[in-house]
Amino acid sequence: MSRIELKHIDKFYGSNHVLRDINLTIEDGDFMTLLGPSGCGKTTTLRVVSGLEKPQNGTMTIDGVEMINADDAYYAEPSKRGLNLVFQSYALWPHMTVYDNIAFGLKIQKMSKAEIDRRVMDSLRMMRIDMYKDRYPTELSGGQQQRVAIARAVASSPKLLLLDEPLSNLDAKLRIDMRAELQRLHKELGTTIIYVTHDQTEALTMSTKIALFKAGELNQVATPTELYNNPIDLEAADFIGNPRINLLDGKAEVINGQLVVKSDLGGHTFPAEHLTSEEFPKSGEFDCVLAIRPEQIAISTQPVEGAIPVTIYANQPAGSETITTLKAGTDEFLAKDIGQIRYDLDQKVWAIIDQDKINIYNKETTRLIKRAV
Ligand SMILES: Nc1ncnc2c1ncn2[C@@H]1O[C@H](COP(=O)(O)OP(=O)(O)OP(=O)(O)O)[C@@H](O)[C@H]1O
Predict the structure, then answer these.
(1) Whose CA is nearest to atom 19 of ligand 1?
(2) Is residue 124 helix, strand or coil?
(3) How many C-beta atoms lie closer than 10 Å to residue 104's C-beta?
(4) E strands, 271-367, in order
(5) Distance, CA 292 to ligand 1 centroid (Å)?
(6) What positions does the domain ABC transporter occupy (predicted)?
(7) Cβ atoms within 10 Å, residue 192
(8) Domain 4-231, architecture per CATH
(9) What is the ipTM of this complex?
(10) Rounded distance, CA 63 to CA 56, Å?
(11) Which amino acids bring their CB within 6 angstroms of ligand 1?
(12) How many whole angstroms from 88 Cα to the centroid of ligand 1?
């Protein structure tokens, strides 16, 4: 259990400013995922927390104890930070069995043989690899080796577990199983976890909070639900969600405190309580972007009041879900249904969209101005 507080962290590699004023608090017991596209600074942040990198500016505390104070050139040794790190490349010792790979660090801590055995076997069972305890790493698949690396980190009962893309070598099916195991592990150990990934599904499924990065900056820190339902800007909206969110241009104006929006979906008025406190023009018309999740668009083959007449451009039933491309004039939207639903291409249908679920962004600033409710 640990609480980590990063304040005003800047990291440069030469003239390359890779972390820009990072302020992030990870509460005791959080499963905090650092998420973002390749090269945005997730791994560097993890390396700063672990002590493998020294930031040029900023401070960090773990449970109130200062670990970094760049002004005083103070950086606590990695071994003094009470954490354990699992990298994407899991570096198991090739000449030791799985059992010994895990026991080694515990022996150094001078634990009793019985305690070592209990911890090794518990962590192997937790990662479902106890049957491989006498094998050598070369006798395991990449995914099994990755699980040994996690078991090794877990066995030392760290207060803080840092995981850098630990599921990257697993096939799709095992990845789902391991997501479930990591979620259980977090609950059972109660450990604070910081987890790096560029995979939004991993982030949305396991985390208690997600820190979304954009080019060295923190863009949004929120629960998975809030990040998915109300991405803070158009970049976040576009990054989160699969299939991607539908974006549609419109015009907006604030009239009597309410937001009046016009687009190819028609005209709508949103009450003041759905608007964010972000600054946006309080008078005159301005450009906006409507963002609608594909699963918020329902298709009716019969006319429905308030629904938008559209044609079926493409229809992709794929077992558990169906993705359908709809056309309204020159606008194209994706709609997502559960199950296998077939439409004829060019069939005329009606799209039903719950206005409350639409996010609206200021096109110029790209910031969220109307929340989904
Ligand atoms: N040792 C280094 N020297 C110079 N530049 C570096 C070094 N390590 C990282 N960088 C640069 O810092 C930036 C952030 O890298 P980082 O590894 O933190 O990104 P990331 O978000 O973890 O990406 P990925 O998902 O690809 O691992 C990148 O532009 C990278 O090229």
Answers:
(1) 39
(2) helix
(3) 15
(4) 286-292, 297-300, 308-318, 321-328, 331-338, 348-353, 359-362
(5) 33
(6) 4-240
(7) 26
(8) 3-Layer(aba) Sandwich (3.40)
(9) 0.94
(10) 22
(11) 13, 16, 18, 36, 38-44, 198
(12) 14
Name the token pair of 291: 């963002």
Decide: 101 and 145 in contact? Cβ < 8 Å: no
- Which residue bears the tokens 């954009």? 214
Q: Which of 9, 13, 168 to mutate to test the pocket of ligand 1 (most atoms within 8 A of CB)?
A: 13
Q: Which of 44, 56, 194 to mutate to test the pocket of ligand 1 (most atoms within 8 A of CB)?
A: 44
Atom of ligand 1 lying closest to residue 47 CA: 18
Asked if 90 and 149 touch (Cβ cutoff 8 Å), the reply is yes
Residue 61 pLDDT > 90: yes
Domain regions of the chain by residue span: 4-231, 239-370
The C-alpha atoms of residue 45 and residue 18 are separated, in whole angstroms, by: 9
Residue nearest to atom 20 of ligand 1 (CA): 39
CA–CA dist 34, 255 (Å, integer):
39
- What's this model's pTM, rounded to 2 decimal places? 0.91
CA dist 320 to 337, 339, 349, Å?
9, 5, 22
CA gap 368, 331 in Å, rounded = 21
Lowest-pLDDT range of 81-90, 109-118, 195-204, 345-354: 81-90
- In this structure, which topology does domain 239-370 adopt according to CATH? OB fold (Dihydrolipoamide Acetyltransferase, E2P) (2.40.50)
Expressed in angstroms, the distance from the first to the final Cα of the chain is: 34
